[in-house]
Amino acid sequence: MLDLSKLDFAKGNGLVTVVTQDAHTGDLLMVAHADREALEKTLQTGEMYYRSRSRGLWHKGGTSGNVQRVVSLTADCDGDAVLARVQKAGPACHTGAETCFDIGPVDALVELDRTIAQRAAKAPEPGEKPSYTRRLLDDRNLRLKKIGEEAAELVTACADGDKARAVEEAADVLYHLLVAVRPLGVTLDEVKAVLARRAGKTAPAPSGKG
Where are the alpha helices (DSSP H) in the chain? Predict the structure, then answer.
């Protein structure tokens, strides 16, 4: 995964910069430092360890439970920085925020897929009116009918040369597409992996989580 012998610890007085990214959403979570010991612990355990000038060696989430499970570790071209792609179990920032950077979600499609997954995992309470997404998930004929209708509306908008309507209809198609494949257990990560493979790029293995 990561060859520590190729890292330049000397440049940073024994430390390299670690940029930590959510492997699912692409969100930038935090920037910290690590020495050889921290990265060795990370490789051994599969969870992120860092080196703080004030706290020393620390296991992210060791106290709070907000651990970061390693998906990949990649060195930059100079060997003095590492990109850590992780699956986070909770907020990354010590303030309780999801990330240390207030930049909002990187990928709206990922957020949509996550919302659909949440709807799929939670059945309505007795007497509770199901959401539109829940209704689609529970009715195979309805969700297949809707994806057909939305696709037809997109085709019409494109045929009419109506850009504004085409944008709206394209968004509707993407939503209904993600809902349609969810009952099959298909995730956005799996779809993206196929697209990356077709583009000749290597994509990380899907986590299996929505």
Answer: 36-45, 108-121, 132-138, 140-160, 163-181, 188-198
Kindly state which CATH superfamily the domain 108-198 is placed in. Answer: MazG-like (1.10.287.1080)
Name the CATH topology of 4-88: Ubiquitin-like (UB roll) (3.10.20)
DSSP 8-state code for residue 95: T
Question: Are 147 and 177 contacting, i.e. CB atoms less than 8 angstroms apart?
Answer: yes
DSSP-derived secondary structure letter, 87: E
Instruction: Estimate to the nearest angstrom the gap between the alpha carbon of 160 and the chain centroid.
Output: 36
CB atoms near residue 199 (< 10 Å): 8
pLDDT digits 0-9 by tens, 68-118: 999 999 999 989 999 999 999 988 988 888 888 876 555 788 888 888 988
pTM score over 0.70? no
In what order do the strands lie in the sheet containing 16-22? 28-34, 16-22, 81-88, 68-75
